[in-house]
Amino acid sequence: ELKVEQNPLFLSMQEGKNYTIYCNYSTTSDRLYWYRQDPGKSLESLFVLLSNGAVKQEGRLMASLDTKARLSTLHITAAVHDLSATYFCAGGGNQFYFGTGTSLTVIP
Amino acid sequence: GAVVSQHPSRVICKSGTSVKIECRSLDFQATTMFWYRQFPKQSLMLMATSNEGSKATYEQGVEKDKFLINHASLTLSTLTVTSAHPEDSSFYICSTYRATNEKLFFGSGTQLSVL
């Protein structure tokens, strides 16, 4: 079973600041996903990373993948309140396993 | 629009009853469906992987007689929580993988509350 760990678990940041969420995984993963979840809701897909060195950006979020280090990052640029949510990474091939999640609160 | 439809979104039942949750893939054939459960403020835990026309594969520690999974067609998978108890109260989410765009799609989730 693929083990996926995220840090930090909780993140409180001021609007306008930058920060990075880290996702480490234990064994080879065919692909790496990032999702956002709002309270009581299902998951919203953010990024799919398929190869070493992949970098994707959407708005204030940028995700990258280093398969050699078994590490993915989600970088937040100039945070705004609307980004407050829980962010999950997930990896796998035949099954998909989720990280512990990072609860992000952006303070005005 | 939604790729995976999950129903019901919320169910409240008495202890000892069984609850069925349906998950339908709307615009493609889902040979594999994943079922997750999520406790409040925790991550998603993979419960089982269901494959159309065959028995589901359960993760370690998940009771197969408790959580019955049926995947009788390429568009429908069901999870039945049998003889539900308060500790089964959780958010259950189905998911399927579409190989054409390598994306993992999720249902809207079912909040189960067992009294």
Largest sheet of chain B: 7 strands, mixed
By secondary-structure content and strand pairing, the structural class of chain B works out as mainly beta
> What is the residue-averaged pLDDT of chain A?
94
In what range is the share of β-strand residues of chain B?
Answer: over 45%
Uncertain stretches of 5 or more adjacent residues of chain A: none
Low-confidence stretches of chain B: none
Chain pair sharing the greatest interface: A-B, 21 and 24 residues
The shape of chain B is globular
Question: From the structure provided, what is the oligomeric state, counting identical versus distinct chains?
Answer: heterodimer
Distance between the termini of chain A: 40 Å
Number of strands of chain B: 11
* Number of contiguous helices of chain B: 0
Notes on the protein architecture:
The complex is a heterodimer of chains A (108) and B (115). Chain A has 108 residues and is mainly β. Helix content of chain A is 0%, strand content 58%. Chain A has strands spanning 4-7, 10-14, 19-25, 31-37, 43-49, 55-58, 61-66, 71-76, 85-92, 96-98, 102-107. In chain A, the strands form 2 sheets. In chain A, strands 2, 4, 5, 9, 10 and 11 form a 6-stranded mixed beta sheet that branches. In chain A, strands 1-3-8-7-6 form a 5-stranded antiparallel beta sheet, with no helix packed on it. In chain A, strand 9 (85-92) and strand 10 (96-98) form a beta hairpin. The model of chain A has no long low-confidence stretch (mean pLDDT 94). Chain B has 115 residues and is mainly beta. Chain B has no helices and 11 strands. In chain B, the strands form 2 sheets. In chain B, strands 2, 4, 5, 6, 9, 10 and 11 form a 7-stranded mixed beta sheet that branches. In chain B, a hairpin with a 5-residue loop joins strand 5 and strand 6 (57-58). Chain B is globular and about 40 Å long. Chain B starts with a strand and ends with a strand. The model of chain B has no long low-confidence stretch (mean pLDDT 92). The A-B interface holds A 1, 31, 33, 40-43, 45, 48, 50, 88, 90, 94-101, 103 and B 6, 34, 36, 41-46, 49, 59-60, 93, 95, 97, 102-109, 111.
